Amino acid sequence: MSRVVFLLLPGVHLLDLAGPAQAFGHAADFGHPYELSYVAERATVLSAQGLPLAAPTEWPELDADDLIVVPGWRAPNLREGPEAGEDVLERLRAHHLAGGTVASVCAGAELLGRAGLLDGRRCTTHHDLQEELALRHPRATVVRDVLYTTDDRVVTSAGIASGIDLVLHLLARRHGPALAARVARDMVVYARRNGDEPQASAMLRLRSHLDDTVHRVQDHIDAHFTEPLPLAALAGQAGVSERTLTRMFRRATGGLTPLRYQQTLRVERAEHLIGHGETVEAAARAVGFEDARMLRRLRSRGVVGRELRPFT
Questions:
Q1: Using CA atoms, how far apart are residues 178 and 288, in angstroms rounded to an integer?
Q2: Among 108, 100, 199, 204, which residue's Cα sits nearest to residue 148?
Q3: pTM recorded for the entire structure
Q4: Cα 182 off chain centre by
Q5: Per-residue pLDDT tens for 173-205?
Q6: 148-151 and 154-157 as β-strands: parallel, antiparallel, unpaired?
Q7: What is the largest CA-CA distance in the chain?
Q8: What confidence tens digit (pLDDT) does each residue in 130-154 have?
């Protein structure tokens, strides 16, 4: 991929665009010659955040080593997203047919679907758009709750920041994981995440409630989940009884106790560590278990409080 072309549609999300562009730019700084280009149907595109973007309307010459990236955009739903002319869709199809790679971030998968490039292939998008994408493109296999997918040179990623994960994956495949790690470190982002990691961590999934007391307790658990956290100490910090805290916590999180929430964070972190090469024993110690027996027990159960899932 010597050239990376970003296709800008009206309402483009800046981070969908800037994150991947920044990652490829860092790779170029480290001696890998990526040339970034931008193209749009109109000379000026207004971003979702209100910043006008200027881009050429003429496509550069591409070959099979090059990549087209379609960043996502803001719209009420996929159906009401920005239109793209048939010439744009044909550009996407022709590039893939010639052996090139096409990629999308967030809602950008919709444009790949309109071009027919999702038919018979695995794909993903932002978790709020997955059901609609599956309905609009029934011949595609929409994979839920993953960061990115790759299938026959069609690469799709979830929302917003996952575009960075997508590029780190592409860089690792082409140049090796050391370069991807170097780019991630230089960008001060989380080390390269596997594509099958969930889009929303437990710290996000279980914090959409409006209970300030429970949020304060969760803040403490989030920061200290590897440590012993007696219920009495948590209740004391919250200024309520143990029974009251448990009742409030269950109501806010859909049934979890503070202990189950802590275990959810531990297992989720252990899954990440194991996915990056750690042994079960080492991961168990790193997240605060005295040994791997409890971690294995939670694995064998498959779920705890509807949040813990089996290892894959």
A1: 29
A2: 199
A3: 0.73
A4: 19
A5: 898 877 887 898 899 886 555 555 555 566 656
A6: antiparallel
A7: 68
A8: 999 999 999 999 998 788 999 999 9
166: Cβ–Cβ under 8 A, 6 or more apart, which residues? 20, 103, 105, 147, 148, 155, 157
**Torsion angle of the four alpha carbons 257, 263, 269, 271, in this order, in degrees rounded to the nearest 10:** -120
Alpha-carbon gap, residue 56 to 219, rounded angstroms? 47
260 within 8 A of 307, measured Cβ to Cβ: yes
Could you tell me the two tokens for 216?
Answer: 């304060």
**Single-letter code of the amino acid located at 302:** G
Alpha carbons 307 and 79: distance in angstroms, whole number: 32
- Tokens 């917003």: give the residue: 160
Q: What is the 3-state secondary structure (H, E, C) of the chain?
A: CCEEEEEECCCECHHHHHHHHHHHHHHHHCCCCCEEEEEECCCEEECCCCCEEECCCCCCCCCCCCEEEECCECCCCCCCCCCCCHHHHHHHHHHHHCCCEEEEECCHHHHHHHCCCCCCCEECCCCCCHHHHHHHCCCCEECCCCCEEEECCEEEECCCCHHHHHHHHHHHHHHCHHHHHHHHHHHCCCCCCCCCCCCCCHHHHCCCCCCHHHHHHHHHHHHHCCCCCCHHHHHHHHCCCHHHHHHHHHHHHCCCCHHHHHHHHHHHHHHHHHHCCCCHHHHHHHCCCCCHHHHHHHHHHCCCCCCCCCCC
Residue type, 152: D
User: Side chain identity at 279, as an amino acid letter?
Assistant: T
Measured over the CA atoms of residue 137, residue 124, residue 261 and residue 279, the dihedral's sign is positive
